[in-house]
Amino acid sequence: MSDLPQSAPAPRRPSALRRGWDSDLAWSFRHAPLAVISLCLVLMLVLSAVFAPLIAPHDPFNPASLNLMNGFTPPMEPNAFTGDEFWLGTDDQGRDVFSTILFGLRISLFVGFAAVMFAMTLGITLGLLAGYLGGWVDTIIMRTADVQLTFPAILVAMLIFGIAKGITPVEYRDQMAIWVLIFAIGLSDWVQFARVVRGATMVEKSKEYVQAARLIGRSGPAIMMRHILPNVLSPVLVIATISLALAIIAEATLSFLGIGAPPTQPSLGTLIRIGQGYLFSGEWWILLFPSVILLALALGVNLLGDWLRDALNPRLK
After folding, report:
1. What residues make up the domain containing 174?
2. How many CB atoms lie within 10 A of CB 123?
3. Cross-strand partners of 96
4. How many CB atoms lie within 10 A of CB 314?
5. Which of left, alpha, beta for 134 (phi over 0: left; psi -120 to 50: alpha)?
6. Is 115 contained in some domain?
7. Is the residue at 73 inside a domain?
8. Rounded to whole angstroms, how far apart are CA atoms 96 and 60?
9. Which of 99, 179, 248, 280 is the most exposed place for a label (fewest CB within 10 A)?
10. C-alpha span between 73 and 92 (Å, rounded)
């Protein structure tokens, strides 16, 4: 019996993790030191907020654990009365500033992420409808967007927050304040998503694959969700990253003005407002450290958004 030549074994297909590591986006990220540093900074802040109950040395919002004698303790200095020492000092109520920052960071990040998700969902939905259906639907949606763009986003958020809080029963206002804040910021930021998705949808709906989907009997909603939406997500991700930083700053602004997060759930903006009242009396640390964390978070997210915009721009490749 003659020996038959053995065929060469089929090459192994690389794993999904390996393909992701070798992708153009991953290569671009590895060769952008500023993006790597920004991602590490943002991840560190996010993980610190998520695990705040485990990391924080004190529970700043438990009245039983507070000692008013620890009030206005400078950073890394023992208190003159109790001898207790705190890394970043304490505020007027004796709360550890480091612990309040961790818990305040949780509120700011939660409001920012939730508001962007709400704005992105609303903007994508309205943008798809306006771009695909056209006609009077497009006119109503886009004229509404144009009118909203004539007002600063923070003023729109303040107006929506005031109206929503006004119609909320008094006994539920503190419990619903965070959700009202998310609704106000998200409703003031949907326009950018809608305009970008509308423009991309108008381009995609004239392509052959959409025409083919119509010929085989696909419905309009199925075409929009399964065919057009995946092809318009790249610019949406860039806008979402940049909008996250804007949403966090908007929440801090509203809380600084006293119309955002309630005192029982203070965010970074609330902590900055509290510290601002003691700046000129010498207790600088109450204002400085929350402000630095807010600045670092917004800067890190913005730098990631700038890198993502350049990495997904085909004109720069």
Report:
1. 33-52+95-316
2. 26
3. 90
4. 6
5. left
6. yes
7. no
8. 6
9. 280
10. 9
CA 288 distance to own-chain centroid: 23
In a domain, 310, yes or no: yes
pTM of the model: 0.87
Per-residue pLDDT 10s for the chain (317 aa) are 445 555 555 566 666 666 666 677 788 888 889 999 999 999 999 999 999 999 998 888 777 778 888 888 899 888 888 888 889 999 988 889 999 999 999 999 999 999 999 999 999 999 999 999 988 999 999 999 999 988 888 888 888 888 887 888 877 777 788 888 999 999 989 999 999 999 999 988 888 888 888 888 888 888 898 889 988 888 898 899 889 999 999 999 998 888 888 777 889 998 999 899 888 888 899 999 999 999 999 999 999 988 888 887 655 55
Output the six-digit token pair for 145: 């967007």
Secondary structure of 182-215 in HEC code, one letter for each residue: HHHHHHCCHHHHHHHHHHHHHHHCCCHHHHHHHH
Cα 125 to Cα 198: distance, rounded to the nearest angstrom = 9
Cβ within 8 Å of residue 310, ≥6 positions away: 28, 316
Tokens standing for 25? 């986006």
Q: Count of domains in the chain? A: 1
13 to each of 9, 22, 230, how far by Cα in Å? 12, 13, 25
Inside any domain, residue 16: no
- For residue 278 the two structure tokens come to 């003691």
* CATH number for the domain harbouring residue 143: 1.10.3720.10
